[in-house]
Design brief:
This protein has seven helices and eight strands.
Length: 243
């Protein structure tokens, strides 16, 4: 059956999720062989390089494993795969879509500044380097569900700040400048929004938040984004597997 892919997420993320769904829907068990690359490319009407990138993501998540010369197989860990592993690297937009939200970004401020110490260290900047600071709230309807601050090295986006549409996907902006993030190192903590943010933006009802602070790297391993994202606790939950 033909199942062409049509949504706004990256092809690799779409395919990763669709192949994972295929494993579940067809009742494949640990040790069962996955359909061949040719069968999957025909099924999803997608190129083989895009499929291989998605399969690599599934292999990294231990959903499948490879036996060279024999093919790809469903792993034992697939039987305990959680709904949304916190280790998945994806854009905030993709993550929100998974939860059924259609977010609109409200840009609160954009500035160019000298980075504070923790930002400079995370982005490996020198004392003379500058960063772009983007402060945004993500809304589902009229309801704020995410408060986000992003820092990007000024050298990564050298053009005029106000020529860029900051209310869209930051990953897309970075991709347009040949620096799309591919991986990140993150820390997670349960917090309340800072008092000054609550007062300044009228977020008294935001409540507890899951704070994910991460440094995102391009394909060459160069840090291109330091992100501070407060996920509204009443709207998001993440899972993990232990092995």
């Amino acid at each position: 059956m033909e199942e062409p892919l049509r949504d706004s997420r990256t092809l690799a993320v779409q395919l990763r999720d669709r192949v994972a769904d295929l494993i579940k829907d067809e009742g494949l068990q640990p040790g069962d062989k996955l359909p061949t690359e040719a069968q999957l490319t025909q099924r999803f009407k997608i190129s083989r390089p895009a499929l291989r990138e998605a399969l690599k993501l599934l292999e990294q998540d231990d959903v499948i494993y490879v036996e060279h010369g024999r093919g790809r197989f469903v792993s034992a860990l697939s039987a305990v795969q959680v709904d949304r592993p916190i280790t998945v690297f994806e854009s905030v937009t993709d993550m929100a879509q998974h939860y059924g939200y259609r977010t609109v970004n409200k840009v609160l401020s954009i500035s160019e500044e000298t980075p504070e110490k923790r930002v400079a260290e995370s982005l490996k900047l020198t004392p003379t380097d500058r960063v772009i600071r983007i402060e945004r709230i993500r809304l589902h309807g009229d309801e704020p569900i995410l408060y986000c601050i992003d820092y990007v090295p000024r050298s990564v986006i050298p053009g005029r700040l106000y020529d860029i549409e900051w209310s869209g996907s930051l990953m897309k902006v970075l991709e347009e400048h040949a620096n799309r993030p591919r991986m990140s190192a993150a820390s997670v903590s349960a917090v309340m929004l800072p008092d000054d943010v609550v007062e300044r933006h009228g977020l008294r009802d935001f409540g507890p938040a899951l704070l994910i602070t991460e440094t995102c790297f391009n394909i060459a391993g160069i840090p291109v984004n330091y992100a501070v994202d407060y996920h509204r606790g009443s709207h998001f939950s993440f899972s993990l597997t232990r092995k």
